[in-house]
TrEMBL record:
SUPFAM superfamilies given in the database record: Composite domain of metallo-dependent hydrolases (SSF51338), Metallo-dependent hydrolases (SSF51556)
Record keyword Metal-binding present: yes
The protein's required cofactors: Zn(2+)
Designated name of the protein: Amidohydrolase family protein
InterPro entries from the UniProt entry: Amidohydro-rel, Metal-dep_hydrolase_composite, Metal_Hydrolase, Metallo-dep_hydrolases
Stretches assigned to the Amidohydrolase-related domain: 60-422
Keyword tags: Hydrolase, Metal-binding, Zinc
Length: 426
């Protein structure tokens, strides 16, 4: 037994289960053995009696949060160009900025700042886009590995429509660079995993998608991409893929839409019922990014439909289309956006509840990593200890009230410590 990674944490413990039920356990004990949660107890069971007890006082203890979709190279222009829609924003701000990552000194500096912020944040796990540059992506992965966070990171593939400075010369050269990246990083990391990253259909030719499918089978890799974010983008995909029934079907026909290897698709706003069924069948994850969707006036995702259909769903910052990296903020934004959808788009779609968005930010997204995002027995011990006593409070609140309020009002300054696999990383 690793004694450093075996202990008992005492506090007001809050977590979701697989049915999205929120459990609130005041003054309870979460047991961590070798980095794995053994459950939450009102009294410490005899078999754990020898474990060190870390009594954290009057604090909230919640599972670490997962950012299921973020773009590391977009950190530098957060909060800029927010008056544009997707395609204009990509061409005006995003692609020119990402082209800078050919410069490794710049990559080191900018990625260093992003990873520093992520380490301080409430996020313990993240699924991250790099750029098309192999060396810069390796710098990002080195920094992520040092941070102690658990992540997937991807070298982006794009062989069309990136403009002259952000486009790979051919499907073959994009595939060759992807292979070089996978070979150079193979076996190098313990906490940082590669993920295939075709940017989106408009940036990837059919030949490139076929190459990536071959690489996926060779290496057994998951995929991250974007799906149905913006109406103009959806219309463009229709033109680019006349044989596909839908945007989802374009990925499906390429063999990169879940099934044997997991896939996470950001946004999924303009999907129809058939696509939702396909996502369910293929086990595709939705990364719901409400702040991004509002910033780029992309639309309001049908989250209630995903939940009802049993589609896997977590939350993403989509930084920098989401200007804020916080998944606490994403939980609050998800509630707000769902209310607008209910009021303006679909009166059948009940707004999201607090337990539902808490689930999405913890277990919903965490499950992309396996048993992650809960304090049920057998889950990775990823935990946040939160001191909310600095938030003004003229009367005593229940733990459940404190938790909901924290999601809206708290931030990284309230984090006392953050555990990943039972290791305190800040
Ligand atoms: N679709 C293709 N690339 C991007 C990106 O960088 N951000 C967002 N929000 N959508 C995209
Ligand atoms: Fe994105």
């Amino acid at each position: 037994m690793d004694r450093k990674k075996s202990f008992v944490l005492k506090g007001h413990i809050c977590y979701s289960d697989e049915k999205k039920k929120l459990h609130i356990k005041p003054n309870s004990y979460a047991v961590c053995k070798d980095g794995v949660c053994q459950g939450v107890f009102e009294k410490i069971p005899q078999k754990f009696a020898s474990f060190e007890v870390r009594d954290m006082g009057d604090v909230l203890v919640i599972p670490g949060l997962t950012d299921l979709h973020a773009h590391a190279p977009q950190y530098a222009f957060r909060g800029q160009g927010m008056d544009l829609e997707l395609l204009e924003w990509l061409n005006t701000h995003t692609f020119p900025e990402e082209a800078r990552y050919a410069d490794l000194e710049y990559a080191q500096r900018a990625y260093g700042m992003y990873v520093e912020e992520l380490k301080k944040s409430a996020v313990t796990r993240a699924v991250i886009f790099g750029t098309l540059h192999v060396e810069a992506t390796e710098i990002l992965m080195d920094l992520l590995e040092e941070s102690g966070l658990e992540t997937y990171a991807g070298k982006v593939n794009m062989d069309r429509n990136g403009g002259k400075n952000l486009e790979e010369a051919s499907a073959q050269s994009s595939a060759a660079e992807t292979r070089r990246w996978l070979q150079e990083t193979e076996g190098k990391y313990r906490h940082t995993r590669p993920i295939l990253t075709p940017r989106f259909i408009p940036a990837c030719s059919d030949e490139l998608m076929a190459e990536l499918r071959t690489i996926q089978k060779e290496y057994g890799l998951p995929v991250q991409s974007h799906l149905s974010e913006n109406p103009q983008e959806v219309a463009w995909v229709k033109e680019l893929c006349p044989k596909a029934k839908s945007y989802s079907d374009a990925y499906f026909q390429a063999g990169l839409f879940g099934g044997t290897y997991p896939a996470v698709m950001a946004h999924c706003i303009w999907v129809d019922e058939e696509e939702i069924q396909l996502m369910k069948e293929q086990g595709v994850y939705v990364a719901h990014c409400p702040q991004s969707n509002a910033n780029l006036s992309s639309g309001i995702a049908p989250v209630r439909k995903f939940l009802s259909a049993g589609v896997s769903i977590g939350l993403g910052s989509d930084m920098a289309a989401g200007s804020n990296t916080s998944i606490l903020r994403a939980m609050a934004d998800a509630v707000q956006c769902s209310k607008l959808r209910w009021r303006l788009v679909d009166s059948e779609a009940k707004p999201l509840t607090f337990p539902e968005v808490f689930y999405m930010g913890t277990l919903g997204g965490g499950s992309f990593f396996g048993n992650v995002g809960s304090f049920l027995p057998g889950y990775a011990f990823d935990a946040l200890v939160l001191d909310d006593t600095s938030l003004p409070q003229p009367r005593k609140l229940e733990v459940s009230q404190r938790l909901e309020r924290f999601i809206y009002l708290g931030d990284e300054q309230n984090i006392v410590c953050k555990y990943v696999n039972g290791v305190c990383i800040r």
